[in-house]
Amino acid sequence: MTDLTAVLPGFPTHQYVRLLPSLEKNLVTTADLLTLDCVEIAKRAQLPLLDVKRLCNATLEALQRSLGIAEGEGVQQSSLLRKTGKEILGSWRTISTLDDDLDRALGGGIPTGYITEITGERYATFLLYFVIIDNLL
Amino acid sequence: MTIFSSGAGKTQFLLTLLLAAQLDAPYGLSSSTLYISTESALPTTRVSQLLHTHPVLLSANPKPTLDKIISIVTPDLESQDHILRYQVPVALRRHGIRLIILDSVAANYRAEFERPGAGNGQNSGANMAQRSSELVKLGQLLRDLARNENCAIVVANQVADRFAGGGSPFLNRTTQSSPLARRSAGNNPDSSIGAPLSSLPGVRGEVEVNTAFPFKSTMDPMSLDHQQRWFTGWGDDPHPSHLTIKNMKTPSLGLIWTTQLACRVALIKRPVYGPGILADEENERGEPVLRKWRRWMKVVFAPHVAPSGPGLEGAVEFEIKGEGMKAVKKKAKNSDDDDEDNDEDNDLQT
Lengths: 137, 350
Description:
Chain A is mainly alpha-helical. Chain A contains 8 helices and 3 strands. A two-stranded antiparallel sheet of chain A has the order 1-2. In chain A, helix 4 (38-45) crosses helix 5. Chain B is an alpha/beta fold. Chain B folds into 2 domains: 10-158 and 252-347, Rossmann fold; 162-248, no CATH class. Chain B has helices at residues 10-20, 44-53, 55-59, 77-95, 106-113, 122-149, 189-192, 203-212, 224-227, 229-232, 242-246, 254-258; strands at 32-37, 69-73, 97-103, 152-157, 159-161, 163-164, 182-183, 249-251, 263-273, 290-301, 316-321, 324-327. The longest helix of chain B is centred in the middle third of the chain and has 28 residues, at 122-149. Residues 165-217, 277-283 and 332-350 of chain B have low confidence and may be disordered.
């Protein structure tokens, strides 16, 4: 359960403080809470079924709220994960590579708000030469 | 042997970003930048060389400075985690940083989880599972930073050679990182050369492979070995040459890490050999005469722009010069013959 606070930083864990140690000991993750049957979790962690059910529902609800897809009064709440097109356009910034062609391929450059990975070889791989020789001989 | 700028250009790319982010709107974010390095300190001489030679940086006002690049070295995983979790968020706000570069993301994970002794039998599986969960946490941490502070996060990643089946015995090793690193186009790599990689090998070939090594045939379209060409950046060439197949790479840290990323850019380099690569033209080290490297930038996947497409067709060729990276303008088809004159990258060392 260590990941519950990471997945849902604002989750009121204090309400479920009795359940968490046992869930943690039995390696129940937040994903398990959402995907497994409550009965199974209750059995695995040896906890009262109703408490587990309450926790599962609360987790689901909190997740939906943080995604901005909850039904009812919570819908209009602002969520970090849900943005309107205008908001995205307004905050859209990129860092140029200082070369027009490279920038064009990157859609303007490296965008803010995202993780971008640059991957590539570091050193000449001498192994490669063996492979080439291997094939030439 | 001539000193080549032997890398694919990652460092040049990152250093350019460090300076470009300091520029005003069309180019950058007018902000300070943070360079977190796991291996060697920031190559300041190269940064100042860029600063004094790149035309855009020269004409900029105000000029970017080295003072606005904050750099820190994180020699091990523990310090890396601590710095990212507790110090970076504070530094971001204090210095108004909008670009974080982590170079490289894999080094400390490799050192931590792939050390000898930690990798045998059951242990290695548990190790990898633990590494995966650590990577997910790192991804979440970086994503939250990127989103909450609206800053750009750029991570550099290394590549490992991807091996086909079991060609030569000494190549037939399995690395820790590596359901991904093991690529198998059937058991005998030579049989698939010439045939398009993106299609399944002939039925006959597959049957042969199947009978010889029942668990080695992985051209199953649902398998990772088959699908990784669409997210690793290597292997989606519809008409791969002999050399291309032998020169297949896989970014480190595998599928789990890939799922943490929004955008992957692969820098691909290919050797250009001299007029003859025959045995008698080899120098005394037994290498074919290597004339130069050609480099391409390829968008593998991104949320805001279309990928470059298969092979190197849509990729942008670039070269690294004293004044930075420059795209190679597309000329007539056989540009191979007339690029003798731009060998200036020889004086750079990554």
